[in-house]
Amino acid sequence: MLGCTFTFESALLDNNIEVRHITENKYVNM
């Protein structure tokens, strides 16, 4: 289970899946 979006985003990036708001150096409100 993932408890943080940063953990989830890291997993995506580790698998070469683009996360657009990171690519564009932006933050997403939650």
Automatic annotation (TrEMBL):
InterPro entries: D-Glu_cyclase, Putative_hydro-lyase
Pfam families given in the database record: D-Glu_cyclase
Top-level taxon: Bacteria
Official protein name in the record: Uncharacterized protein
Organism whose genome encodes this protein: Anaeromicrobium sediminis
